[in-house]
Amino acid sequence: MSKIVVVGSSNTDLIIKLDRIPQPGETVLGGEFATAAGGKGANQAVAAARAGGEVIFIGRVGRDSMGEQAVAGFVRDGINVDYVARDHTSPSGVALIFVAKDGENSIAVASGANGKLATTDVFKAESVMRDAGILVLQLETPLKTVQMAAELARATGVKVLLNPAPARDLPFDLLRHVYVLTPNENEAEMLTGIEVRDEATAAQAAERLLELGVENVIITMGNRGAFVMGKDLRQHLPACPVNAVDSTGAGDVFNGTLAVALTEGRSLLEAAQFASVAAAISVTRMGAQTSIPQRKEIDEYIALHQPFATARRTSVKKQPAGTGNGANYSICT
Asked: 283 in a domain, yes or no?
């Protein structure tokens, strides 16, 4: 299996679990507090490693206890940390996360050292990138660095998986380097101007993204599953019924395990199905990296439920996000 290079952010998550997420100006008492390792880049790297991938992480942390703990966690998961820089002037990134009892969340991020991840940090890893099977990117680090990494990968024949989160406008020059783009509904609307409400509008948004130069698109739609589109592929994947506890990091689990499945030679649809199982498992647990399953758990779920027996084109009714415990939340067949 080819190496997976992840360029991205590393945060420490400060999590408060409440009955409901506070409104602006409101204080909600009675929460439970926890800390956990997070950051979209780090989450995706850990998800890929636990799913069996050989992972190299390119990122930046502060010279503080949170940064040291983050790097130690990467090492425990078998991730190559040779290209994780220690920033002398900025603290490690921090995310404050509110989690409601129905599993929905609200997140604020102080980027810290993540905002200093530079093109020079990526160039230092050029040799390992050339040998990679796939490059995984997100948008919690400077866009200039993300774009340069994508250009470098594409120039050397390495596939680029871009998770365009958090949502923002992206230049066409970046999109044309992307092998597979994985926006959620809001991110797809940001990039295309098309509100994703159902399978039909997801298809419209995916078609628009292909027109913009992306090779393949997977739009994740929470409790309505996902829509997968490529040159010769147009497939809706329904959602798994799971007991949703915390959706934090579910998209990152999807992306990290998707990268593993692609480097194992699976088709895009098969890879999306595999990733959906990992995401389904993750939302039944609290936290970001603490919720990421091991490969054995994913394989056992597949063996038990046989979710890949038949590829189905199924439409599911729109439901409000976070309909409570037992809500269809993660993508599955």
From this structure: yes
Which CATH number fits the domain that encloses residue 319?
A: 3.40.1190.20
Q: Within a domain: residue 123?
A: yes
**Residue labelled with tokens 């530079």:** 118
pTM over 0.85, yes/no: yes
Phi and psi (nearest 5°) for 227?
-120, 125
Q: Which residue has the tokens 């991110």?
A: 187
Mark out the alpha helices in the chain (DSSP H runs): 40-50, 65-76, 119-123, 126-130, 143-155, 172-175, 185-192, 199-211, 250-263, 268-282, 295-305
Q: Going by C-beta distance under 8 Å and a sequence separation of 6 or more, which residues neighbour residue 23?
A: none
Residue 177 lies in a domain: yes
CA distance 322 to 97: 16
Q: Per the residue annotation, which of 77, 87, 246, 252 is the catalytic one?
A: 252
For residue 106, is it within any domain?
no
Contact between 109 and 132 (Cβ < 8 Å): no
Q: Which residues of the chain have pLDDT under 70?
A: 1, 306-333
Whose CA is closest to 57, among 138, 125, 145? Answer: 125
pLDDT tens string 122-137: 999 999 999 999 999 9
- Its domain, for residue 232, covers 3-10+39-92+113-331
Which residues, other chains included, contact 55 with Cβ-Cβ below 8 Å and sequence gap of 6+?
3, 4, 5, 6, 45, 48, 49, 78, 79, 80
Which DSSP state fits 312? -
Overall domain count for the chain: 1
Active site residue 252: yes
